[in-house]
Specification:
five-stranded antiparallel beta sheet, two-stranded antiparallel sheet, alpha+beta, elongated
């Protein structure tokens, strides 16, 4: 049985206000790639599947990326903060680590970094969306730790 999400739930999942989502849907009623609408209309309400939410989020990221200046190279990094892992992007890892030491009282441990862009960081965020606790912090899990180890092996040869 398919689970349907409300406008409020979708807005929360894409980290935008409901009003913003409804305006965006007025401007983008269908997915131009598939020709499918982003929602199912039930009376005055819109209902969304998990697949709809992914398609909406993908298009938002694509639109935002296109609006930004060309992707600047930097690093995607992974930090261990105890019960959580931070997945972030920076152009200067040294500066970021100094800031993290003052922002996180319990301290952080560097796990891994690799060349990347802001967009590549967002792709990793989407992949582990179910583990997101807040912002760029994700619940530590065997799946996430395995992913980091695999990335280290690929990067380090």
């Amino acid at each position: 049985m398919t689970h349907y999400y409300t406008e409020e739930e979708v807005a929360g999942r894409i980290h935008r206000p409901k009003r913003w989502l409804l305006e965006w849907l007025r401007e983008n009623p269908i997915d131009l790639k598939s020709g499918e609408p982003f929602f199912c209309q039930l009376g005055r309400s819109k209902r969304f599947t998990a697949e709809d939410i992914v398609r909406i989020f993908d298009l938002i990221l694509t639109q935002e990326e296109a609006a930004r200046e060309p992707a600047k190279e930097g690093y995607v990094y992974f930090l261990d903060g105890g019960e959580m892992i931070k997945i972030g992007f920076t152009r200067s890892l040294e500066t970021r680590m100094k800031k993290m030491k003052t922002d996180v009282p319990s301290g952080v441990t560097f796990l891994h970094m690799e060349p990347g862009t802001f967009k590549s960081e967002k792709i990793v965020h989407r992949h582990f969306a179910e583990l997101r606790v807040r912002g760029e912090w994700f619940r530590k899990s065997p799946e996430l730790l395995d992913y980091i180890e695999q990335r280290k092996a690929i990067i380090n040869g």
